[in-house]
Amino acid sequence: MDLATRIAAGQGGFVLFALTPPRQSTPAERLPEIARATVERLDHLDLDGLILYDIDDESSRNPAERPFPFSPTVDPSTYRAEHFGSWRTPVIVYRAVGKYQPEGLRTWIAEQDPRSTLTVMVGAASSGATPPLSLADAQALRAEANPDLLLGGVAIPERHRRRENEHLRLIAKQEAGCRFFVTQVVYDVNAAKNLVSDYRYACEERGTAPVPIVFTFSVCGSMKTLEFLRWLGVDVPRWIENDLRHATNPLRASLEQSAATAAELVEFCRRLDVPFGLNVESVSIRREEIEASVELAARLGAQLRVSPDAR
Amino acid sequence: MDLATRIAAGQGGFVLFALTPPRQSTPAERLPEIARATVERLDHLDLDGLILYDIDDESSRNPAERPFPFSPTVDPSTYRAEHFGSWRTPVIVYRAVGKYQPEGLRTWIAEQDPRSTLTVMVGAASSGATPPLSLADAQALRAEANPDLLLGGVAIPERHRRRENEHLRLIAKQEAGCRFFVTQVVYDVNAAKNLVSDYRYACEERGTAPVPIVFTFSVCGSMKTLEFLRWLGVDVPRWIENDLRHATNPLRASLEQSAATAAELVEFCRRLDVPFGLNVESVSIRREEIEASVELAARLGAQLRVSPDAR
């Protein structure tokens, strides 16, 4: 069953891989080869779909200096249309809604084929900014302009640990049309289990079926990657930082930890009967980190297929 | 190699089981049968040793109402001497040092056979109280009165998450004579890994060899047990609370989670070359929780023996 059909049916059991498109400053003639290298790396993985992120300058969210300077990236929908023609499974295209004018976003939504495209809408980074389009407006546009286009939302276990209401935010997003959720990178297995558990029982209370939660994992093999993940709001544990300073193979350790966390979440979601997907985010441009991401995705895929009773 | 020899050599790879002696209010004639039932339950586990806790009224530490009323328990050393004659491996007897007069504690220390007894000294619960004997005084007594008696200290990963200096406290305790550490119950695998990692690299910096860290696990199968663990300072995750309210077999889920956490810590310690032991604490008087504790200890023991390259 393909990704869109599964999600439309409220079912999980899929594996995704998430990429950020190249920077806009990349010479145009290099884009085809970058995309081709990506497709070659991912082709044998039998992925159920890709995620393409839409990067906004989030400096308004975080007063700390950005570890990598912000550099606008190629629009994910354009990148996909121009360079991923050979890709065979659906693509989840992110939309940082604060970047768009209502008419432009409406046109984009209306043009998408819901069998091959899904979208995740992300609100503006800071509540201080007043973007032309709020997340609620954008969600309403989707319902109006292309109701079959499957909509997802973001889920942040760390926020649940601090505020304990992320499960209610998920339910509100579900009422606004979300049919799946994608987490930010998970390192804290208990924070993720707490969110899943609270969400599941809140759904039960309301007589609502839980929708698939896609857990995102990443490897972290360099201090730059660690700093970037932390800047994004991920609680990367201190032992990983120590590993990076001292251990002979921190990348391998991070890969093993992500696989162990995923295994625990898979077992937990199955027990609680919450549909789920697994996603590997490639956050680095270093070759060895990219290759470790691909290996992680292969392992997660093998794990799901060994016991394919996932909802 | 027996427990005392291993610890004296700075080696881990052992499995323990921890008990709190019965309440003093227990009719004296029932103590032999309680102890016999315990020995029968544990005998087949091939444990490397037992831990017997010394309970102090910790109400001074925590202003919240105690979920179980405090009730003094039988002295662990007396309980062991009178009822564990048939037990064949060493016993780690806790000493809540705030309860004792210097002379009484010195006598007890001097009388112990270091081949069959080890001790963990615990400081007074609240810094507000002024006990007759401080932890430092008690540690000095041990060094003086029976320097071969192996001394351990407590390690609290949750405290490390809040204050980030628990590894330095361990090193200070080590300088005061501690040859091993026992954690409180671990649910947060990242907090435990952070502590191990910080401790290991701080040892390296000082040219000190790390001593065995004994990780404690428990099952939690009832709201009473959950409340008690939280009162003791353990961060029991919210998903376990939800399980207890809703799931058909929360005790089983808690057992699986403890086993998964242990497996991850075993792998981590081996990679970092930090010696470790595993301990299962039975915190409940409910039969099914006790039996699940025994099962957990059996599984942890089997796991260590399958790959006995543990230091």
From TrEMBL, chains A, B:
Entry superkingdom: Bacteria
Matching Gene3D superfamilies: 3.20.20.220
Protein known as: Methylenetetrahydrofolate reductase
Pathway the protein takes part in: One-carbon metabolism; tetrahydrofolate interconversion
Keyword Calcium among UniProt keywords: no
Species whose genome carries this gene: Nocardioides aromaticivorans
This protein's record includes keyword Oxidoreductase: yes
Cofactor: FAD
Keyword annotations: FAD, Flavoprotein, Oxidoreductase
Family of the protein in this entry: Belongs to the methylenetetrahydrofolate reductase family.
